[in-house]
Automatic annotation (TrEMBL):
Domain of life according to the entry: Bacteria
Classification via InterPro entries: ATAP (IPR016092), ATAP_core_dom (IPR000361), FeS_cluster_insertion_CS (IPR017870), HesB-like_dom_sf (IPR035903)
Gene Ontology molecular function, alphabetical: 2 iron, 2 sulfur cluster binding; 4 iron, 4 sulfur cluster binding; iron ion binding
GO annotation (BP), single: iron-sulfur cluster assembly
UniProt name for this protein: Iron-sulfur cluster assembly protein
Segments forming domain Core: 2-103
Species this protein is from: Melghirimyces algeriensis
PANTHER family: IRON-SULFUR CLUSTER ASSEMBLY 2 HOMOLOG, MITOCHONDRIAL
């Protein structure tokens, strides 16, 4: 469902160690309406798994995806890149048919979301 590159896995583990109770944390990956193209990605740590969540394990990281987001990000690849300007996560979504210039907003062939004016 979600694939982390080695660099992304290493960075997420590093970030987890800065959290209180890292052993209880999940990486939550999801989608919400908004952005220029209709949907935006959400990434963050969460201790609460619900019945609405799919759980996957990648690089020893427990990842949660809510059922509403699962179809929109199935096959998502997450990478991490460092540059002179800093670092950041790069998301490649095979379901996206259009993305905004910054790469954080997308739409799929079957769902458009609710775009915001940019």
């Amino acid at each position: 469902m979600i694939e982390l590159s080695d660099r992304a896995g290493h960075k997420i583990k590093e970030m987890l160690q800065e959290e209180e109770n890292p052993e209880k944390q999940y990486l939550r990956v999801g989608v919400q309406g908004g952005g220029c193209s209709g949907f935006t990605y959400s990434l963050g740590f969460d201790e609460n798994k619900t019945d609405n969540d799919h759980e996957v394990n990648n690089h020893g990281i427990r990842i949660l995806v809510d059922k509403d987001s699962a179809d929109l990000i199935n096959g998502l690849q997450i990478d991490y890149k460092e540059s002179m300007m800093g670092g950041g996560f790069i998301l490649h979504n095979p379901n996206a048919v259009a993305t905004c210039g910054c790469g954080t907003s997308f739409r799929t062939a079957t769902k458009e979301g609710t775009p915001e004016k940019c």
